[in-house]
């Protein structure tokens, strides 16, 4: 095929990039949500829109898409019942749907083996060993996502209520949080009742600030998260036998918190998930001439 | 007034009882949900329906309600912005709205001082000391309700996913839970995504069974809950200076788990919340002749 296309489709944004068969970038496009599990119809719409925008940006007509090999990394692809069926409804010569984690790993480590930890609002982990993929975590806010901003934020709010009730000593972090709710625990409880994971995660910056000031509760919360993230990375990397890349909004924070024996195996990501998808599309196009 | 009426209005059921001014029970009625915070209109409907049913059961016409002093213990009364205003829309000669916790305490301890712990799907605590009310906990599933069936159930599911991921050893409890989801963690995660507190609480019976068999994770979960419940009860009772009654679906379980020094202060509830509401109405009627 003449062109390759990569798509990085997340829960809020879908990004697409089109390139020549040998990987020269021609154009980019963006669109709205593309989680294929939570809203497949919207996902298809966003993918098509972002791909058309990329064509326009490249000075190509939409017909170019029929000459395009696409790799799409989509949030929710692991939970969707028929990604292959959905791929066939897309306007590309061929399309492969994988999870957004797979293209993130490809972006971070290239075609080789390695481990990624994506730690932001949620948390999840993946390894490629001898070409095989291994997933860990990513089970969602309720019974998973340990070490994520959402979980650590929720824990901080819980501690603030315990302190209000007199079951813990008040500390700078819990005082700060209670003040944000006008020292009215009912307002905090009301907030928590309808809060989404990203709302809990918004308390992460102040947790990190108090942790830096050696405030003991903040350190305790961060340590709990670090213990989980470290165990996950150790298990997937066979104790550091594979390179590890940390991605997501909390990657820098964890870079500082992880124990030194693990930190030595951490490498910077080679590139981002969208480039990972493009690289996979290029490989796929080359292997099917 | 000629009659007194008590109402116990919870999130799923509303119960009413009408009696003579000196407390002789005449009739009972039940209706649907009566949480005045989450749905005030439905609450008023349920209260009126249950009160009318109680009249019918007593062989009275609805006009009797105009000769009735009512005390209504309603879930959500602490969060509603204007319980007095709402009370005036009800068909009674006079109506006092309190939380369902207040009538539960009245039922359990009579007019005297005491502490109650309500531990079931959620958890919350209350004390009456020298006629003053003190609340503790009850902040809801997300950042509160420690020691409740919902929280302990959620923790068990979390541990099952950690065991599936290889971050914990599998144990009889986590094996049991994973089997319930056909050993497919995606099914568990999917369940957790939409589960309500009562759905998590449904795992409590098997946690208790494995705890009885001395299975270490189950014991650990129960111990964590017990630590919280014990601290709450100690704090509110001034280390046992007030009698403590345990109510709710997990009260028997906690009766067994609580440490002996606390257990000695636990007394059986004198009667239930509906009788508590009736007793309060009788007292109120007697004090306003």
Automatic annotation (TrEMBL), chains A, B:
InterPro entries: ATPase_BadF (IPR002731), ATPase_NBD (IPR043129), Euk-type_GlcNAc_Kinase (IPR052519). Keywords: Kinase, Transferase. It holds the Pfam family BcrAD_BadFG. Residues 5-253 form the ATPase BadF/BadG/BcrA/BcrD type domain. CDD domains: ASKHA_NBD_GspK-like (cd24082). It comes from the Bacteria. GO terms for molecular function: kinase activity. Coiled coil: none annotated. This is N-acetylglucosamine kinase.
């Amino acid at each position: 095929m003449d062109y390759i296309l990569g798509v990085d489709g997340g829960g809020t944004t879908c990004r697409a990039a089109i390139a020549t068969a040998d990987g020269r970038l021609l154009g980019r496009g963006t669109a709205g949500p593309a989680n294929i599990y939570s809203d497949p119809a919207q996902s298809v719409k966003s993918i098509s829109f972002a791909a058309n925008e990329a064509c326009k940006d490249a000075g190509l007509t939409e017909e170019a898409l029929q000459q395009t090999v696409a790799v799409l990394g989509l949030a929710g692809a692991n939970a969707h019942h028929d990604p292959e069926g959905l791929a066939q409804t897309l306007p590309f010569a061929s399309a492969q749907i994988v999870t957004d984690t797979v293209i993130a790993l490809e972006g971070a480590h290239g075609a080789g083996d390695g481990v990624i930890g994506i730690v932001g609002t949620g948390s999840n982990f993946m390894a490629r060993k001898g070409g095989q993929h291994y997933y860990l975590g990513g089970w969602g806010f309720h019974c998973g996502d340990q070490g994520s901003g959402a979980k650590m934020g929720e824990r901080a709010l819980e501690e603030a209520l315990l302190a209000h009730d007199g079951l813990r000593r008040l500390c700078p972090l819990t005082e700060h949080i209670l003040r944000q709710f006008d020292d009215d625990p009912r307002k905090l409880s009301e907030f928590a009742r309808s809060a989404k994971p990203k709302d809990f995660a918004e308390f992460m910056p102040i947790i990190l600030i108090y942790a830096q000031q050696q405030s003991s509760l903040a350190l305790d919360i961060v340590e709990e998260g670090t213990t989980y993230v470290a165990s996950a990375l150790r298990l997937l990397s066979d104790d550091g036998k594979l390179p590890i890349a940390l991605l997501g909004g909390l990657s820098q924070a964890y870079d500082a918190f992880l124990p030194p024996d693990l930190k030595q195996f951490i490498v910077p990501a080679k590139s981002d998930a969208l480039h990972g998808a493009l690289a996979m599309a290029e490989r796929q196009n080359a292997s099917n001439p």
